[in-house]
Specification:
2 domains; 60s Ribosomal Protein L30, Chain: A; seven-stranded parallel β-sheet; five-stranded mixed β-sheet; alpha/beta; 9 helices
Length: about 260
């Protein structure tokens, strides 16, 4: 049953206001927005607590909402939804869901993308989308990075972050050592005098690719504990790719034999 509301200033809807960008609740609540993202999540096994959308959205997609059995289905206007995000919006639906539990390292896949202090939600989301497309099934991030299920990252990933197992690590050195003990080869994406050119790389089956900070890259003390440093060939005078673009190129080359 659709619940028509005149204002979003009610207790049950405050989660939509609170969970902006990197915010999370202890119950793992997250907010998704835009029909493409919401509909993809409705077709998954993600737990959905409520939908907040316009009549236009329900006219087109109510059957999908009903099939999922969403407990609370709210009807509002774009103007009221705009009050939540603080600006005029172009999409016409939002969703409150519960993100999956983060995994332990023992549950990781054979191909892993690992971030070292990426600060941009857009980059976290972009890398998640590429990883899902290229079959890299596990995403490792430090606590300081945005989570793939934060609002902006999830939107940029188009909801495909749902396809990834996520692990949030405490210490990068301990995590790398553990992964090595588990049989992974650790590749670091960085430009150094002795790095391997991508065209010369001989990938193994079980690997971890580490992408560094957008500005600082990967620190030397991290590079020395990795098995191999990899550089993408570029035209003279160009220092680097955007980290999301670089991650996509490297994940493709490392895992193309599995596609």
């Amino acid at each position: 049953m659709i619940i028509k509301i005149d204002t979003i200033e009610i207790e049950e809807l405050q989660v939509y206001r609170e969970l902006r960008e990197a915010a999370f609740r202890s119950d793992r609540s997250f907010i998704a927005d835009s029909p493409k993202v919401v509909n993809l999540l409705l077709e998954s096994d993600i737990e959905v607590k409520s939908i907040l959308a316009t009549q236009e959205y329900y006219d087109e997609f109510y059957e999908l909402v009903a099939k999922k059995g969403v407990p609370k289905v709210y009807l509002t206007t774009k103007e009221e939804m705009g009050k939540i995000v603080g600006h005029k919006i172009h999409h016409n639906c939002m969703m409150h869901g519960i993100r999956p539990d983060d995994i332990t390292l023992n549950a990781a896949d054979e191909q892993i993308i690992m971030l070292d202090n990426i600060t941009s939600s857009e980059n976290v989301g972009s890398i998640a989308r590429s990883a899902a497309a290229l079959g890299v099934g596990t995403y490792l991030l430090p606590k300081s990075s945005p989570h793939p299920f934060n609002r902006r990252a999830l939107r940029v990933s188009m909801g495909y972050a749902k396809m990834l197992k996520t692990h949030v690590y405490e210490d990068i050195f301990t995590t790398i050592a553990t992964l090595k003990d588990m049989g992974y080869r650790i590749y670091a994406a960085e430009v150094t005098p002795d790095s391997t050119m991508l065209r010369e790389l001989k990938p193994v089956q079980k690997w971890v690719l580490i992408m560094g900070h957008e500005g600082r890259g990967i620190a030397q003390e991290i590079l020395v504990v990795c098995d191999e440093v990899v550089t993408i060939e570029m035209q003279e005078g160009i220092k680097s790719f955007n980290v999301g673009v670089a991650a996509s190129i490297l994940m493709y080359e490392l895992g193309k034999n599995n596609l």
